[in-house]
Amino acid sequence: MTQALSFNRALPEHYSLDAYKKHFAEFQEFQARAFHSQPINILVKSRASFIDEVLLELWQHCALAKDKAISLIAVGGYGRGELHPYSDVDLLLLVDKRPDSNQQEAIARFITMLWDLRLEVGHSVRTYKETLSLGKDDITIATNLLEMRLLTGNKTLFQELQTAVNADSFWTSQAFFQAKRHEQQQRHAQYHGTAYNLEPNLKANPGGLRDIQTIGWVAKRHFNTRTMRELVAYQYLTEDEYQELIECEAYLWQMRFSLHLEAGRNENRILFDYQPAAAERLGFGSDGKASVERMMKRFFRTVQRVSELNEMLLQHFEGSILNSQQKLKVSQLDDYFELQGHLIKARDSAVFARRDNLLRLFWHIANNSNITGVHSTTIRLIRQVRRRLMGDLQDYEACRQLFLTLLRHPRGMDLAVTLMHRYGILAAYLPQWRNIEGQMQFDLFHAYTVDEHTHRLLKNLYKYSLAEHESEFPLCTAIVKKMEKPELLYLAGIFHDIAKGRGGDHSELGGMDAREFAKLHKLSEFDSKLIAWLVENHLLMSVTAQRRDIHDPEVVAEFAAKVRDETRLNYLYCLTLADIRATNDTLWNDWKGSLLRELFLATQKAFRRGLEKPMDLRDLIRENQSEALPMLLRQTFIESEVLQLWSRIKADYFARYSPKQIVWHTEHILKHKTPNEPLVLVSKAPIKGGTQVFVYTKDQPGLFAKMVAALDSKKVNIFDAQIMTNKDGYAMDTFVILEQNGETVNSPSRQQSIKKALEQYILGKPDLSRQKPKLSRQMRQFTVPPKVVFLPGNTRHRTMLEIAALDTPGLLSDLGQVFQQCGVNIHAAKITTIGERAEDFFLISNAEDDALTTEQQSQLRRVLISQLSQQTEG
């Protein structure tokens, strides 16, 4: 007896939309209650049975049952008899000829009834010939037809189609396999080849339900199987592997069923919105992030197992269906492994009784560029021995030697490390790696789990050594070429986040892990200290570049004192760049690259000049002015008018801008003949990786708030601001902006639009109290308690302020208005967005142009906290 039979409420005797909707709601509630007590396969199949019953009743109601020329056929997942609460109901209405007007009207009434019941119906009305023709041209249609099931209607017509679909003239087994494999490769590429995202799609991601279905489709086409179990009889799966595949499918089904119930729609993405409730429904507890973490770790383990089984079986199918194994050249690599075509294969089933052969396998992959993967029989052996390991691979001296050899190999971080990660060998080698497998990161900054982020960091580090990426990372490439021990960089990458999720400072804990690793692997004391220092300080450079004024010689000197020497600087720069780029594909931009490069070069120069002789600010000012003046004089400007303008500008300006920027600003100010109107310049070409906006205007209350509101209205992101008021009361303010996709503002019309908006806002024309856009779906899932901290600064007459808050729309504009309200002047701003979190730094002064008093700081903190709290609540 199926669970569907225990839902003992019959359909209403007479059709009415309200009665049917009530019946659907009761069934939905019944399934939600049964979720905790019934096997998921029963729930999924009972849903399909329930829909069968509804369709047959409505088919009768629309008088379609009297028409013997139509077959009502379930296809796709519904054809398999599997439906989740809001899955699509895919139908084929097979006709012997094109429907007449009466048939069309009846069919339209039938489909409309299904839509009225809020069913996601995908339907087509086709003749036998049309169906076959379209199926031959479209692999998706062909796949749906493989799983068709007659619901009611013309049985003969259905059987004719079924016979034709199973014939080689429709799709040969070879052509079908190649098309499905290509389809899977394209689908995986859409998800960057990984399911280890923070909001994965459990159906389409690598290792998801679609990968299980692909196995079934190929098997059904080749062997005409109805169930996956039949692959055991064909010796394509062992009984254990079959059970594993069924368990994996059951867990993914449970998650999908739960997601549908929580979302109230056909949702296959494990979105932040539904993760806590889904975790509780699945029995992982109700303790927030901890529950989600438990659920997601199991999910990531599941998709890893599915990926391995999918890869194994598709390889088996390839050999069987395409007869590819008969054509392959076999060459012996050593006593343990051979090369079969482009796949490495163990020469006997006991090869991994020697545990070091697990590492030797990957050394061969690094050492032989012809190897593109691991043979399916060897993947099976890896899976078997992985389960039987009684300790860590690093416990064995031979394994330790091979691991270091692999790290030092020029191609060790190419395919070899990717496959070590994929097949769980990194986790089998390093116990700490097991802790970060599938480790969630609950923010919008990190797009991947900790282990996948680290894997991507290692790949980024490896790219520095490749000629084809030299133009992408020229400075890193030059540095790595001269490194005597690039493996130390890889080890720092492996350990930099390895302590996440343990509690405490992950940098410090990771440094301790790195020291233990170095001791076990007998690395030198110097190498051990360098790796540990890099792990402990892997955030130092990015924090300094993005939050401090790197044009201030004192900031550079402070950073250089922490780094201490050029060797550490080289390693840290390469690690930092790779780390940021591996965090989130959308967060890297040329502006960040420019900041890091500037800090690197300034620190390198400080080391080479000798830290005891840092460049004096006055020397930098004189140097920039002496370079800029001749360029202006060549443009027919008179020296006296240039110097007269410069005399009204504060000296700091000439230290913060390059000679070219000074020339650009000066020439336009001297040509500006309408002093009561603002001068706005937008750089046509990128300056240091961003679009620079320069504003010269008479200072006024709330100027900063107006300017950021103008930029906010044009939907650009602000990354940096330099706010300066001259001795004559004119403001000279600069913003570095980028489009929301991280690109510079390249369109002339877009540049003009930004210029016009700034001019209008400064002149007070727009209303600053306009309604702000709402928080995005993802942002609503996060809370960032407002934090206002006053930091010790390098300047006696200035106060440094750090503000951390949820990155709500219009945040900067609101902050600007608070500063105005409290009589605070802004001199510089560093705007940093880390996922959902805004971390902004301001250099400010009071109305007397001095540092804020303790009382003024307290008042400003109160007002800011109040404003930021209101924003979050709103």
UniProtKB/TrEMBL annotation:
Residues covered by region (Uridylyl-removing): 333-691
Reaction catalyzed: [protein-PII]-L-tyrosine + UTP = [protein-PII]-uridylyl-L-tyrosine + diphosphate; [protein-PII]-uridylyl-L-tyrosine + H2O = [protein-PII]-L-tyrosine + UMP + H(+); guanosine 3',5'-bis(diphosphate) + H2O = GDP + diphosphate + H(+)
SUPFAM superfamilies membership: ACT-like (SSF55021), HD-domain/PDEase-like (SSF109604), Nucleotidyltransferase (SSF81301), Nucleotidyltransferase substrate binding subunit/domain (SSF81593)
UniProt domain ACT: residue ranges: 692-778, 800-874
Domain HD: from-to ranges: 450-572
Keyword annotations: Hydrolase, Magnesium, Multifunctional enzyme, Nucleotidyltransferase, Repeat, Transferase
Regulation: Uridylyltransferase (UTase) activity is inhibited by glutamine, while glutamine activates uridylyl-removing (UR) activity.
Pfam families listed in its UniProt record: ACT, GlnD_UR_UTase, HD, NTP_transf_2
Gene Ontology MF terms: [protein-PII] uridylyltransferase activity
Keyword Transmembrane helix found: no
EC nos: 2.7.7.59, 3.1.4.-
Cofactor: Mg(2+)
CDD domains: ACT_ACR-UUR-like_2, ACT_UUR-like_1, HDc, NT_GlnE_GlnD_like
Region spans: Uridylyltransferase: 1-332
Keyword Signal: no
Entry note about domains: Has four distinct domains: an N-terminal nucleotidyltransferase (NT) domain responsible for UTase activity, a central HD domain that encodes UR activity, and two C-terminal ACT domains that seem to have a role in glutamine sensing.
Similarity remark: Belongs to the GlnD family.
Protein's job: Modifies, by uridylylation and deuridylylation, the PII regulatory proteins (GlnB and homologs), in response to the nitrogen status of the cell that GlnD senses through the glutamine level. Under low glutamine levels, catalyzes the conversion of the PII proteins and UTP to PII-UMP and PPi, while under higher glutamine levels, GlnD hydrolyzes PII-UMP to PII and UMP (deuridylylation). Thus, controls uridylylation state and activity of the PII proteins, and plays an important role in the regulation of nitrogen metabolism.
Protein name from the UniProt record: Bifunctional uridylyltransferase/uridylyl-removing enzyme
